[in-house]
Amino acid sequence: MIQYIIRRFLYAIPLLFGVNVLTFVLFFIVNSPDDMARMQLGQKHVTEQAVENWKQQRGYHLPLLWNDQQQGIKKVKETIFYQKSVNLFLFQFGISDSGRNIGADIKQRMWPSLAVALPTLLVGLLVNITVALMMVLFRGSYLEFSSIVLCVILMSISSLFYIIGGQFVIGKLLKLVPISGYDGGLDAIKFLVLPVIISVIAGIGSGARWYRTLFLEEVNKDYVRTARAKGLTETQTLFRHVLQNALIPILTGVVVVLPLLFMGSLILESFFSIPGLGSYTIDAINRQDFAIVRSMVFLGSVLYIFGLLLTDISYTIVDPRVRLS
Amino acid sequence: MTEALLTVNGLSVAFNQDDNVVDDISFEVFPGETFALVGESGSGKSITALSVLRLLPGNAKLTASEIDFAGENLLAIPEMDFCQIRGRRIAMIFQDPMTSLNPVMTVGDQIGEVLELHFSWAKQAIKQRTLELLEQVEIPDPERRYRDFPHQLSGGQRQRVMIAIALAGEPHLLIADEPTTALDVTIQEQIMELLERIQKQTGMALWLISHDLALVSNIADRVAVMQNGKIVEMGCNEAFFVHPKHAYTQELLAALPSMDSCLNHLKKEKPSLLKLTDFKVYYPIRKGIFKRVVDHVKAVDGVSFELQQGKTLALVGESGCGKTSLGKGLLNLIPGTSGEVLFEGVSLNQLQGDELRLKRSEMQIVFQDPFSSMNPRMLVGEIIDEGLRALHSDISAAERREQVVHLLQQVDLPVSSAYRYPHEFSGGQRQRICIARALAVKPKLIVCDEPTSALDVSVQAQIIELLKNLQQEQGLSYLFITHNIAVVAEIADEVAVMNQGKIIEYGHVEQVLKNPVNEYTRSLLNAVPVLKIT
Amino acid sequence: MTILWTDALIFFLVLMMLVLGFYLRGKEHLRRPIGKVTASRVGMMSLVILVFFGMIGLLDSIHFKPANDKSNEIISLLDYWTTSIRQQQEKTYSSPFAAYSYSKENITTDDGRQLWTYPRLKYGGAHLKNPDIKKTHDIMQKAAIGFTKGAGLFAFFFILLLSFFKERKQTILKGTAAKPVWMIIFIIVSGSYMLIDLSGFYHVLGTDKVGEDVFYQAVKSIRTGLVIGSLTTLIMLPLAIIFGIMAGFFRGWVDDVIQYIYTTLNSIPGVLLIAASILMVQVYMANNEDQFTSLVVRADMRLLFLCLILGVTSWTGLCRLLRAETLKLREMEYVQAAQALGVRRRIILMRHILPNVMHIILISVVLDFSSLVLAEAVLSYINIGVDPTTYSWGNMINSARLEMAREPIVWWSLMASFLFMFTLVLAANIFADTVRDAFDPRRADND
């Protein structure tokens, strides 16, 4: 068991290394730092000196992989790869292209992201499972049929529409909550209600449908027939046996995204001006701040791989078949 | 005569808009008796049982003029109250104990659930009773097993747990739907004995559903035979087995393999075709952080035997004994084999490349499951043709077509079959196609991996007949792998009994079946249900 | 004739589909699922809508330089046919069917007075003397005439069809899904005729900030949506199929390597990988401007890159499914029988594995289509989607949402893009469901 976890842990290292090499190639090989400098400084009439200065300031003046001018270990250390990529492993994100400390920004901004994403996930899970259970309980009836139709319609609407429509109706017409913004402490709640409601509604269509298929798969299994033969009612069977079994894939599916909640949601945060990591990333993309984008790519992968690890562990906890063999 | 416990009158069941699967049947089950409903697959026997308990899937349509249980009209009970019948007054056990138990619930909870549902007892009482039940179904160390999950138990123990669940409600009628089909013979015998014992203790009625006439003849008081949704014959045990009236029943009884048929087998020495020396199939067990191979599962652990030309060697054993690994390892379908294989005096270990491929193709295989052994996307003609195309690319298409026609005739299938898809054929017909596919490359040896286990008795006999005829015509040798020692007498010249990867008894069929030396062989033989005619 | 990269690929895709259809025609095992699809009413209705959208997209994919035009502009067949709508450009916003502009302006009346009022539009409702009184009546009248013309056209072709295929009359009229299908074709033909008719006189869905017709924009965006949905699949399929099947079939180190590749790719959050790649494309394009002769070519390159990147990020899901299925299939007894017969591995892959995973590929392709169309809008919204000059629903939303704060609210751009997108995605989703129900063997057993 512990060996298994260690094994999974070790497997994360080559994965992260792969991510690192990939981002390095994307950011430094496909386009050279010179190209980036020219892009940032404006296309025309850029002097060689200005480009050099720009690179110098941000540490892009070093050679890519191998520094011939240095001695000993510094041959490796004084390179862009080491400075920019390897340091990520130590969670030293460095300075953004616009001169801010990325590490500090991330620390500060991940909490608002979490404050939106976590309630969204939990409420969404609750709502989706409830809807899916109702559909399975009333299977074959018109209630189920109309819910399926509703789900298909809901999932055919662009998430942008949910946000714009939600902001318009709840925020602007009804004036129930502020349209956007964020505040520290408990005041945050009034800003969080709207984004959470909107993203839960936006997720019902696909979520409920997905859980329904999971439940239906279980319902057709033999042990459910045994449960009925014992004398359990349809509802008891569903709650005691089907739910219990279907929760295993559901929970492990949730566990994998848990760490990623810190990353926040890109569009939601930018629409509601929530100062989380999502809007941070969007701003960086729009400002073409490569250092931040690179850091976020790495952070995202670390969190995802951590999520995979958690999934493996959670399987061994939740599923007796895995735990005891 | 006493009052019937269960009376079913004019029961019909249909799925969607199709024809009736169960067609206007009537029968009774009396208190304390064992009533057996026998039939081949698809005859509607399980559907009958499920419909009495209202466990049919949603698209089934049930009509009946009367279903009475202990004087109560079951048809009139609303769904809400029917839960008081299920589990409490009529209980049921199913065929496959692995899938029929909830995998994430402990054994104790699954039994206790019934008690909790039907009796208003305290927690302690429920646990006490659960342990008693586990003891009653003879599970060793009930205290420990109480907390176990189904996957930690063996197949036989799981079925015992199923029985405990059924007994928990103290029902008056226990429906057992093929309770031993998924189990090995020795376990099967134990479970049947257990059921008999418990029936005596509790005095409940047992309604046994089975395809196995021999098994039924040992236990049933009354027997009914179903065919295509109808009950064709019903009667008391003696009358039924001694003087079967209906032609179908007679046919079924005649098709049962008999131990006596081994008298007419070859004893003459023939040249050797296949000789295995110290043959092993090991599966690596990987452990630790780097998944190093720490040990091996010894599926086949040093087996040696010799098969002569034109003869049949039966490889007998229970599930997990390594017999299938041996067959597949011989054809190199699984990795990790070692040991010397002499085929027609040539050592396969020393051949390589195309030479090996050609030599190996002289050994072919026929599988157990006629449904997964053919690519559903290919025409039967293409399937039979496949080996020819792979091995003899020089043969013209017309010649190949001729070959396919010839092969289809050999296995008694209409020539038109070549242009149809596998799903249009029945299980027995599919098995014939598989045999034709194997024959196409003119093999000298065919490994028959339980070729008849998935088939009904009557079809089983036909396939064995076909195999025997082919052997006589073409001088084929068979390595016949089976768990059913009763079939062995019909086809084998020699028998090897396998247990835990080793051959524990090996000899001429008559000698092994009549005078087994090994203890295990003897228990295998004793466990086989034999038609008991009193 | 100018062939853009995406045009070429789209027609290649259409060709592939035709070839595949021809190859699979009459295959026995497909008859039942295809029959199931054709018998499904909603499924066939959504298919008709999809085909209609597809035809518009194809029309929009034949590009050329107009001979009489001096500018270096590349236009498509669709542009050519809608030249009037395209060129009837107003100054700024106007609401649907408006005759007056959205914002007030200083205008000089005929008698020389200066007036601060809503000016008449240059084209929208320009044929009316007094739009305040006559407009509603005129719209109704023009709509009715247009609809009738469309209906007449439909009737003409319908009768023509019936007379040509006399002996197949029964299948044309009596099939399970025949009635709804003809209904929806009737609505589409008459409806679009009506809209085209009206567009000559009004801006049916208003105009945007620079006065461009929104209806035209929304129609032009269809191609973008379709390209993203289909070309991405074209790029993703070979990767997913080859890697998935190889990993499942060969196992061992091949499997390890492929699993490593897709886990690595998967671990980078998709949006970020797309963002990073698009940023790089931007840098590249900014530094190599001379390679892109015109705006259209440049925008097309970016569209192609987007498809490429989306393809690279989205093959992993299907790959994993195929790997799992292949692992299952290779243990099937017919594969083992083929091995025993001495069939070579290459042929086993082609003959036994590939045909038996086809249903998974098909289902995943149709399921992915709608999510890709939706993804385009989101990506364009955060500026990492298509080029800002490309017509796309995402760009429409992006430029329109800032106007939500205006009074009175400018809603038509948003509404138009949502309606078009919703129709396409809903049709795709319903069709995907139909296909899945028909082709998934596990679902087929249930009924």
Structural write-up:
The complex is a heterotrimer of chains A (325), B (534) and C (447). Chain A is mainly α. Chain A contains 15 helices and no strands. In chain A, helix 2 crosses helix 3, helix 10 runs antiparallel to helix 11 and helix 11 runs antiparallel to helix 14. The longest helix of chain A has 36 residues. The model of chain A has no long low-confidence stretch (mean pLDDT 84). Chain B is of the alpha/beta class and 534 residues long. In chain B, 37% of the residues lie in helices and 26% in strands. In chain B, the strands form four sheets. A six-stranded mixed beta sheet of chain B has the order 7-8-9-3-10-11, sandwiched between helices. In chain B, a hairpin with a 4-residue loop joins strand 12 and strand 13. The longest helix of chain B has 18 residues. Chain B is globular. With 447 residues, chain C is mainly alpha-helical. Chain C has two domains: 296 residues, MetI-like (MetI-like fold, Orthogonal Bundle); 109 residues, no CATH class. Chain C has a two-stranded antiparallel ribbon. In chain C, strands 3-4 form a two-stranded antiparallel sheet. In chain C, helix 9 packs antiparallel against helix 10, helix 12 crosses helix 14 and helix 14 runs antiparallel to helix 16. The longest helix of chain C has 37 residues. The radius of gyration of chain C is 26 Å and the shape is globular. The N and C termini of chain C lie far apart (52 Å). In chain C, 45% of the residues are buried. The model of chain C has no long low-confidence stretch (mean pLDDT 84). The interface between B and C is medium-sized, with 36 and 21 residues.
